[in-house]
Amino acid sequence: MIFMTLTILPWYTGILLALALFFGMHHIVTRVLLNNSTYTESVQQTPYFAGIIFASIVWVLYCWFTRLVQQTQSHAVAHLLFAVSVGLCIYNFFRAVMLDPGTCPKPASDNELKTIIEDLASEGRLNGQTFCIQCMARKPLRSKHCRVCDRCIARSDHHCPWVWNCVGSNNHRQFVMFVATLVTGIIFFDYLTYQFFSSLTLSSKPEDISSSCPLPSDLCQMTSFDTFLVAVALWSTLQLSWTIVLLASQFWQIARQMTTLEVSNLGRYGFMGGRGGASMAGQMGHSHSRSGTSSPDSEAPVHNHRAGGFIMNLLGFDRFTKGKAVDGLARSSKASNPFDLGMWGNCKDFWTAGRELGVEYDKLYEVPMEGFREAKRRRERDEEDDGPKKSGRRSLLGLVMGGRSSRGGYEPVSQV
Asked: Higher pLDDT residue, 81 or 43?
């Protein structure tokens, strides 16, 4: 509807009406359907933004089928690469949405929960880093309780409203593939759009071009010939502003064996593991207050949800503007990281879901004293000596609660 509005009306009224239509639809979704008191509250808990992404892909494919395929047949390789990119993008988008991100297991019984609490308390380690009072379960290393999903996510990266899901150990690879193919798809679409207009003889007559068009003459000619295609291409290109930054940061973190959460923790606390806190606010790292002030025993920062911060969060730029994330990026090269296997090993571990480290992230509670590589070799030797049946259980317990282990190098010494 918005694209059609830009197509039918002159630019000076079409843009204003298109913005009004967008605001109207946003108002209906947030205030009427979701019955929220503000335009930003609880929107991330709905498929609203995931719907925007999918609808954008649909309109791009519509333009490709109805315009670009017929007019740019000489660019077969570009069409093939675009089709492959879009196909992989849609597939990984739905996988990122539908897959469980890596929900951490909860105790099967009250007795098991009691044992976990007693063991942690006896070791002086019953805090927000080792135990989640929201899920009433032990928290694995690199996990976080998501306020939106209301569950602990193994190897948590962040909650992404664009895929209506958390990004964790089980769907992080699909998320990265989705963003990567989204970027390449937009680039090939822009290329084919450029070739489409280059193959045409556009009219330069004054009566065919609006005299009030503020764009350069070439863009005015393109817009007057096919406003719908230009609008879709500009909207798609706009998405590159955040997808390229997001993709670059994800690749950098993968090479460093870090997550967005851990980079933020480095900036805020000076170490990857976050802070321990017995209170709900201390664990969640966030609290809401109508008065705008925090309670005396609350460690979490209080902030109001304003439009600017909401937009930065949606675009993924908030990781660089809040929580001293920039400081975390600067500290990452010198920070203690027990999971670091070098660039090649880190990439292999990411794409093999922890096989290079030899761990299951939803059951990883300790850092082996000898390191992950040596612990993996030890388990492999035990597997050869004892056979697969006996060593299968030992290989799992070796990183969960067996042998010499600690959480050193991942959290403050006072909490280890």
From this structure: 81
Q: Are strands 144-146 and 151-153 parallel, antiparallel or unpaired?
A: antiparallel
Question: Is the distance from CB of 362 to CB of 104 less than 8 angstroms?
Answer: yes
Non-local (6+) Cβ contacts of 304 within 8 A are 292
Q: Which residues pair with 137 in a beta bridge?
A: 132
For residues 333 and 335, give the distance between their C-alpha atoms in angstroms, rounded to a whole number. Answer: 6
160 is catalytic: yes
Q: Are 131 and 120 in contact (CB under 8 A)?
A: yes
CA distance 67 to 199: 12
Please answer whether residues 378 and 398 qualify as being in contact, where contact means their C-beta atoms are separated by less than 8 angstroms: yes
Give the whole-angstrom CA distance, residue 132 versus residue 113.
Answer: 11
Place of tokens 């469980």: 100
Short-list 248, 224, 93, CA closest to 163 = 93
Give burial (CB, 10 Å; 0-12/13-18/19+) of 161.
Answer: buried
As a whole number of angstroms, the distance between CA 169 and CA 53 comes to 23
In this prediction the pTM is 0.78
Q: Are 292 and 148 in contact (CB under 8 A)?
A: no
Do residues 78 and 188 lie in contact, with contact meaning Cβ atoms separated by under 8 Å? yes
pLDDT tens digits, 298-353: 333 333 444 555 555 555 555 555 555 666 666 666 677 888 888 999 999 999 88
Q: Classify 173 as helix, strand or coil.
A: helix
In single-letter form, the type of residue at position 62 comes to: Y
Compute the distance between CA of residue 411 and CA of residue 407 in angstroms, rounded to an integer.
7
> For 228-233, what is the mean pLDDT?
88
Q: How far apart are CA 120 and CA 107, in angstroms?
A: 14
The tally of CA atoms less than 13 A away on the side-chain side of residue 194 is 8
Interatomic CA distance for residues 98 and 90, integer angstroms? 12
Q: Please state the rounded mean pLDDT for residues 59-83.
A: 92
Would you state the structure tokens that stand for residue 30, as one six-digit string? Answer: 């947030």
| Active-site residue, from 104, 146, 160, 166 | 160
